[in-house]
Sequence to fold (325 residues):
Amino acid sequence: MDLDTRCIPLGHIQTYFDLRKALIPDANWLQKRSQHVVHNPHEILEMIIGIDQQDFYRNAGIDYRPGDSGVFISTRQVLDLVDQAVLALEMPYLGLAMGNLMTITHHGMAGVAAISQPTLQGCLETVARFCQELFPPLEMYGRVDAREACFGIEPNLSLAPYTHFFLELNMVSFYNIFRQLTGGEHELTRVEFSYVEPEWSPVYRRYFRCPVVFGAAETRLVGAVELADYEMPMANRLMAMAAEKTLFENIPTRAIRLLPLRLRRLLVRYYGAFPSLENAASELGMSGRTLRRKLAEEGTTYQRELDAVRQKIAEDKREPLRIRQ
Fold:
C-alpha cells in the first residue's frame, strides 16, 4: 500500500468530512471569523469555509456522487480533504475538534458492534479490526501486561504533514467513548503522543482530563490493567454480529488485499519474540492454512515477511534514537 492505493471506502470518509454535520459551530468563534452577529451558525460556517461539498471532494480528485457506496479513495486524497478543511477553517487543531464530536453513535454500525462486545478489551480489539478494513493507513492495537493496559494507534505509512490530525481525531474520540462507556467512573492514567509538542498543545487540555505526554515512543491511551476486563454495559453477542454484518454489507472494503502489510505490522509489535505462522494467523482472524494461501496469492510467504521485519528492526537499531513526528 502507498499513498495512491485506493483502499479507503468513500462512504466511511464521508462520515468524517461532511463539515456541516461534523462540526458544531461555536457562536463566539463564528462571530470572530465572520465579523457578523450569528443567527444561523451553519449558514455562516458554510460561508467561512467558502466551499460546498461537491467542490470539496472534486478538489481532491474524488468523483463525489451522493449515495454511491462503492467508491474507494486513496490516502493522498484523504490528505487533500484534511488540507482543505484545516486551511479553510484556519484551525490546525481540527482533529481535536472533530474527534471531540464523534460519540459512539457517530461511528454507526461499527460503534454498535464494538460496544456490544463483552469486555472493554473485546471492544478495542473490534475497533482495531474495523480500522484495518475501513482505514488501512492507520493501525490500531490493544495491549495488556502486568502493569497496565493500553490502546495504541500508529500510521502504516506517512500521513505528513497531517499525522497529528488523524491521531488527535481518534485519540479524543476513543477517550470520550471510554468515559461514556464507563459512566465517568474511571479515568485513564495518561494519554501519550509520539510527536513533539505542537504549538496548539494548550488546546489538548480542553479535551483530556488525564495527563498528556508528547514525544512518547507510541501514541496510545493508557489505563489500569483491570480496565481490560471491564464489563460492557451493552454486551450482546447477537447485536454485535448483526451490526458487523450490516456494516460491511453497506460499506465494501478492500483491506484483505493488504494482508502482507497487516502481517508486518503484527510482527513488528513482537519486536524479536516473533510468533509462529499459526499464532500469527490466529491473531489475524484466520487459520494458518488460509494465511499461507492468501500470502501466496500476494506473491509472498510468511518467512519472507518475517525476514523483512527482522531487517527493518536491525536497520532501526543502527540509526540514532529520535522522536517520531
Notes: The radius of gyration is 20 Å. Residues 21-25, 33-49, 319-325 have pLDDT under 50 and may be disordered. The CA atoms of residues 22 and 101 lie 7 Å apart. Residues 256-318 form one domain.
